[in-house]
Fold this protein.
Amino acid sequence: MPWKERKAMEERKSFVQRAIQPRANISELCREYGISRSVGYKLLKRYREEGERGIAPRSRRPLSHSLETSAELVCEIVLLREKYPTWGGVALRELLLDVYEEECVPSSRTIDRILKRAGLVKARRKSRGKWLDREKLIKPEAANEVWTVDFKGWWKTKNGKPCFPLTIRDGYSRYLTGIYALPGTGYMHTREAFEKAFEEYGLPEQILSDNGTPFATVLSVEGITRLSAWWVKLGIRPRRIFPGCPFMNGSHERMHKDMKAELQSCPMWDLKEQQKKFDEWRNTYNTIRPNRAIGKKRPAKVYTASRRKMPEQILDYEYPSNMAVRRVSKRGNISWYQQNRFISGALAGETVGFLDEQKEKMSIWFCELKLGTTDKNFSSPLGGKKRSHYREKHARNR
């Protein structure tokens, strides 16, 4: 009907008042008001039956349809969302499929619309469109090929003590091997947490981290620290994202977003109770929550422990015979032709190898990790200017 929206009701009333007059020409009135005769007669019929209320605009929406979600299922969706406040339609649908037949469960987009109408969805902040070179991302193709690690910020427990959650996860299966409530980011506490993970799940091939403590430092060649040096001795290659590029470990950061919403907002009394809460949340994440990245499966169904077990004792690495071997002192120096050369304080007590290369250059290795290249007199720095400056300053202070 081409009624004008502002005067739709007035136009209808005018039409009806003129149409009910004796000897009114309905066809002429319909042409004058720009409506069909069927619409005109329908308005007259409704007016005679219901009065002015009958000629008011009505919705064309059907009273019911075969694909409508039942009220029972809508209530179940809302209850699941209240139980898991950060889960979306994809994850909630997988939980419903465990209880209901597939033809009875609405699509994930329908579930999202139900949650939005119920006021359970917050508006997302628009992305600023960061550049992302996907070729430089690490894409594991099997379990234990790459583990991702990070500290989820920190917060205070109710007794006023700081809690630094260390999260360790398998990059392929998204299986969360551990969340550890640590009192700080120091080397000893972090190593103890990794020892527990390695003893239970074995050793990965690589570990991806950011450039923060205790995973990396600017005071050492290749950013190596005591923790990453220990990984190298175990046969694990440390990998790092680019500085200021957390999206290179985006899946891990997305998990931290859920931790912030569900764990950080309600801290426990002390670290012991916080650890129990972490274990409960990890069990839910691994065994109940479906993950879209692995085909909506549960991570526990995809992950398998590594065949590489944690050794009881780490043996000294045997360098090839064509390498010159030096032991690093407690101050991070080596003796090179009766002169002290600073390598790294993180490698104190360890051995490093020197391999001659072309053009009077030599490369320096720690086990199977290449630390850098310099000339045979150590006159050129191992790393960039910034790191070299920090290393020289650190060596002078010590």
About this structure: Confidence is low (pLDDT under 50) at residues 384-398. The radius of gyration is 34 Å. Residues 8-55 form one domain.
